[in-house]
Amino acid sequence: MLKNKIPKLIYILFFFIALKTQGEENILSLMKKYEKESDLSKKTKKESLGHLYIITRKQLEIMQIHTLSQLLKAIPMFNFFPNRFGIYTLSNPGEVAGIDIKYRLYIDDHEVSSIHILNPFLIYDHYPLDHINHIEIYYSMGAIAVSNEPAQMIIKLYTKKPERENSSKIRLTKDLRNGYGGNILIAKKINSNESFLFMMNKSFFDYSSVDEPDGRIYRDTALQSIFFKYDYYNYTFETAYNSVHRDPFTGFSIDAVPDDGKIDSLDFYLYITAYYLSDKSLKVHLSYDNQKREYFEKNKEGIFYPLTFFDPSNPFILFNEKRTFEKHSAYVEKKFQSSKNEILTGFFVKYSKQKIEKELHRTSSGDLTEKEKYIKDFKNISLYAEDIYSLRENVSLIGGVRLDRYKYYSMKHKDIVHLRGGISGIFDRLSIKSFISSSYLIPSMYLLENAKDNRLDPIHVKVLSGELSYQINSKNNISFTAQFFTAKKHFSFDKNSLRFVNGAEKDFHVFSVLYRFEPDLFNSVELNYWFTNQGDTTLSPSNGGYIKLFSEFKRLQVYNELVYRASYRPLFYDFPSSLSYSFSVKYRLPEDFSISLRGENIFGGTPKAVRAFPVGYPVSYSAYDRKYYISISKIF
């Protein structure tokens, strides 16, 4: 009897196991669908700003990246290499990694670029992402509806909603070298109208040194970050503190090997944003920024810094300065909505100033007491308006105008006009987006201080861009993007005067293909390839692409990434093409613990970067290290 019942018991057992497994899979599928539908990026994206590339919360989680630099090395149509100071920075294909003014970084409503150089990466290249919900990258040259000067790219980091999280999390990360990272995140919903988000991070990034004929150069970086956001009814208060200590890497040293040096940078900001009227169509934003920077470099072989009193026959052997910067800014925006029109009007004002706290320049013949000519302050006022006009369902025309008046210390004010038009439409499976714009990039304080006669006109940029996206079926999508730039009076370095000047007209074209495949709710593939008209005799790769694979299986998350950069021939170098492979895996343990492993540039196929310095020796070095991380986190 018992023998006859055993097969039946086994069948019944398998039946219940199958039901349980199917039930778990159904629950997981429902959860995935909810995650997808409730993604915050659906609410924050602003299509009129430009061609949009989104990194969702789920993608950030599967990728197991904890810093901005880990993300930006694999985005379409740009290179992200360390510059001569070891700072990771974006650059156009073909251009050297430098100190560029074309990029803006926002954390929620606040723009955090350097007041002095108008580049965000001096402090924010390794910015922690534990408190970031999702990231929107706008290819946005000429964008009107932005509360700051126009830029070629706008990166928006949106922080997590405390009412959604309502938890605390601790993460500890260690790499196989001396690098480490620790992060505390607290998100609490106090009541239905009140919540706060707090993040504290301390990290150290240990990079391989580079051996040069005159010695060894380093680019290690130490970071401390504190972030706090408080939401109360229709008000948001946000403040943050970021401190970065770096080795100078090649610095300004003529032989590219400083004897000693450091770069200490500090950024503190606070802002308040308020929404008024019943529909929250009136927005008011007030902010204050305080930044400090100390640069120290010593080199007996000589230091080149293009000060107004620089003498090439008697170069500096020591350069030490300490500066403080302040920025006060405010904007007011009002939206008007009708059946056909969505109109945004805005007023923006900004006042920036700097003070040199310490200044020491020493040559072999002694200290110099002559002071640098520096820009004491900068004022900017803007009026802007944009209309999104609905031609019919899912088809809109976009038009905008921006009037800017800006004035640097001791100079006459300048008035410039930005114009932009576009169309956005969805036709069954096909969607299109196209923009044409005429806009300007104004020089930074740093550029003006190092310009010939301390004069630079803004760069006049005309852009025509288009994007075509086709939904092949429910699982496959392919998109094509093309951008055509013409820049007049672009900033270039004059080797005769050893100063920045306005150069001749410059054309630049870039094309990108992006394919996405989602076979189910738990797996996705993303392939990208981009190319330009820059050729291969450039200072960075002019072609590139990537493959990204996202996978989930119950408690396991797996990510694969392969980044391609084409060969190129800067100066007298001949760099081959490269394939940089990264891999991460995360396993969720019981009791809300998780452990993750991540390897970067595992096979050592990193692209090469180059320092193309106007005075001194060129240097080549690997853009990325081979690194392995282990992270443990706990949610409370």
UniProtKB/TrEMBL annotation:
GO BP, one annotated term: siderophore transmembrane transport
Keywords: Cell outer membrane, Membrane, Signal, Transmembrane, Transmembrane beta strand, Transport
Gene3D superfamilies: TonB-dependent receptor, beta-barrel domain
Protein name, per record: Iron complex outermembrane recepter protein
Molecular functions per Gene Ontology: siderophore uptake transmembrane transporter activity
Main localization, broad class: membrane
Membrane topology of this protein: Multi-pass membrane protein
Localization terms from the record: Cell outer membrane
Organism, scientific name: Persephonella hydrogeniphila
SUPFAM superfamilies assigned to the protein according to its UniProt record, in alphabetical order: Porins
Cellular component GO terms held in the UniProt record: cell outer membrane
